[in-house]
Amino acid sequence: MPGELPSTVERPTMVRHAVIVAATLMALLLYLDRFAIGIAGEYIREDMRMTQTQNSWFQSAFFWSYALCMVPAGWFSDRFGARRMLTIYILAWSLFTGLLGLSSAVWQILGLRLLFGMAQAGAYPTAGGMIRVWYPISSRGVASSIVALGGRAGGVLAPILTAWLIILFSQSADPMQFDRSTIVSDKAFLAALQDAPGTSAATPINQLLLRFPEGIRTEIREARSSPADGARAAATCDRLIPEIAALLKKPDLFSGVDVSNIKLSSEAQELRQRQASGSPLTEIDAIRLNRLIVESAFPGSIKRFRGIGWRPTMIAYGLCGIAVALLFVFVLRDSPQQHHWCNEAERRLIDGDSTGNAAATEPHSPPFPLLPMLTNVGLWGNSLMQLFTNIGWLFVMTTLPRYLEKVHGVSLAGQAVMTAIPTAAGILGMYLGGWWTDLATRFAGRKWGRRLPVLATRFTAGLGYLVCVLLSAFVQPDSSNYWLPWAYVGALCLMAFSVDMGNPAVWGYAQDVGGKYTGSILGWANMWGNLGAAVAPIIYNRVLGEKPDAMQWTLMFGVCLLAFVLSGLCSLVMDSTKPLAQT
Fold first, then answer.
1. Backbone angles phi, psi at 302, to 5 degrees
2. Hey, which bits of 6-89 come out as E strands?
3. Which residues of the chain are modeled with pLDDT < 70?
């Protein structure tokens, strides 16, 4: 009949959404494996007997190889296709994560982190090219934000899940166990004994000293007189170890002892409060309290008994990666034209009734656009903006747990939650950022639609660190100021929210100027961003040193503030209206 619609209308299939789900799971695993060592870092450092300087290079190693392999990894994805390369990348970094839990030497974990960075380098450039294939230009900002949101979800999950797994796997650890492997440094342990006040003071260290046999105390005094003699220090510690192991089994070891001169963990404080309130502790809880007090009295020279859990945690993460890789093989194809689940209506929706998108996504061998990239001013601004952003942003993922523990005495579980919250704030920022850059592009054009979100968010991120500087300079940490660490977390939430709100515009910029070289362009800009992440732990270590004081932490926050100011200034030259091919 006239005006009657056809009885059947082909509706687009939803394969593109399944592809984005798989990419989002990949991004979640990417960040989960990458930042698990943030919360486990101090346990790894103790287990491997690393200094803070060595630990900073361990934290940095991933980002050096990750940054330097960004460009070739992006080119490989352009050349061989997303499905093949992402599967290889996921399997490789999962293998290296699992092997980290089996390593026994510092050179091994450094090598594995370098290889891990190489394997992860291609993930986001390949995902960026994949989004260009599977989504029309009007939806790429939101699609990019969803994938990046998966990464931030992994960042939120990393400290919480890692802490939970470490605690779970360490339940089998015996707090009474005190053997040769427990002492991280013989000299540091004896130095802590040497620094103790007079033996009449009722402190945890002197409580141990007073309970040692006289012969052992004489040997300690002799070892103090020759601290450079490593053999004597080792021999003295060998005699001390069984004595301490026996003392730890005494439930009343530290009963009535003044612990105000040491920073107890939250777990130890809770047990002490229960003991002081008249609520009797079980024998195992009393022994655990003894061990926690000893760990706090000798920071850095005695391993914490919960540290045993980091190794099986890394192995478990490696096994999870295999499942995600298999999902990619099943769901992903290099273009809608190659996917038998994708109907013609969805292909037309993606391509805009043209075949340009499809043709550009077949595996091909384009020349690497080195000269156009080197001469594009906007791309340099984008690259340096990412470099300075990561110098400021990485503090939360790598150093915040250390700050919370050493300055505020926050427990492992508390560190996990407080580290996760700023990253969770970033998730909201990431989603709003995708909507914002798409809206800004429609109303202000591509130039300011990409530039303005980046510019504004770098300065508001710096504002978060300004609050940290003021808090650190004018408010002294105190056990009664329970609100203080949460104030820092709130300021860092502003920072993380701001950074992630601007990130979809950064991805959109690369897709706008990259064209068929999107993978290579994303790889180039991300290379510079991750060079910033590579130098960040080294900068942090130079500022903080082995045992930072309040002034050094204040300076650390100031360095991060400066990084975001420089990042915002660099974004002023980004221009999405100048595609790479026309430079």
1. -130, 130
2. none
3. 1-9, 12-16, 74, 78, 134, 137-141, 172-176, 194-202, 207, 210-211, 213-214, 217, 219, 221-230, 333-341, 344-370, 375, 445-446, 479-480, 514-520, 523, 581-583
CA dist 557 and 143 (Å) reads 33
d(CA 26, CA 550): 39
Q: Decide: 458 and 571 in contact? Cβ < 8 Å.
A: yes
pLDDT of residue 87: 86
CA dihedral 78, 79, 83, 87 (to 10 degrees): -100
d(CA 166, CA 310): 5
- Residue 494 contacts residue 467 (beta carbons within 8 Å): yes
Cα distances (Å, whole numbers) of residue 116 to 127, 150, 328: 18, 19, 19
Helix (H, G, I), strand (E, B) or coil at 102: coil
Query: What pLDDT sits at residue 7?
Result: 47
Residue among 177, 170, 172 nearest 248 (CA):
177
Give residue 494's Cα distance to chain centre. 18
State the Cα–Cα distance between residues 237 and 180, nearest whole angstrom: 8
Residue 123: predicted pLDDT: 82
In angstroms, the CA 55 to CA 43 distance is 11
Q: Give this prediction's pTM.
A: 0.73
Both tokens of residue 261?
A: 């001169």
**Distance in angstroms (rounded) separating the CA atoms of residues 507 and 382:** 10
CA distance 359 to 343: 17
- CA 226-230-236 angle, 5° bins: 80
Q: Report the Cα 406 to chain-centroid distance in Å.
A: 19
Q: Looking at residue 194, what is its pLDDT?
A: 60
270-273 own/partner pairs: CB under 8 Å, 24+ apart: none
Nearest to 237 by CA among 185, 198, 288: 185
Helices (H) and strands (E) in the chain, counts: 23, 0
Q: Are 31 and 533 in contact (CB under 8 A)?
A: no
Residue 120 near residue 154 (C-beta atoms within 8 A): no
C-beta separation of 583 from 376 below 8 A: yes
| Bridge partners, residue 302, by sequence | 183
Torsion of CA 249, 250, 255, 258, to 10 degrees: -50
Question: 3-state SS of 329-349?
Answer: HHHCCCCHHHCCCCCHHHHHH
Do 263 and 547 meet the contact criterion of CB atoms below 8 Å apart?
Answer: no
Assess contact for 454 and 525: CB atoms under 8 A. Answer: no
Exposure of 362 in the CB half-sphere (CA atoms within 13 A): 7
- Answer yes or no: are the C-beta atoms of 47 and 303 closer than 8 Å: yes
pLDDT for 210: 67
Q: CA geometry: angle at 427 spanning 465 and 112, to 5°?
A: 80
515: left (phi over 0), alpha (psi -120 to 50) or beta: left
Q: Would you tell me how many other CB atoms lie within 10 Å of the CB of residue 395?
A: 24
Nearest to 23 by CA among 99, 110, 122, 161: 122
Taking the chain, what is the end-to-end CA distance rounded to the nearest angstrom?
A: 57
- How far apart (Å, rounded) are the C-alpha atoms in residues 491 and 520? 35
Counted residue by residue, the chain has a size of 583
DSSP code string of 153-207: HHHHHHHHHHHHHHHHHGGG--TT---GGGBS-HHHHHHHHHT---TTS--HHHH
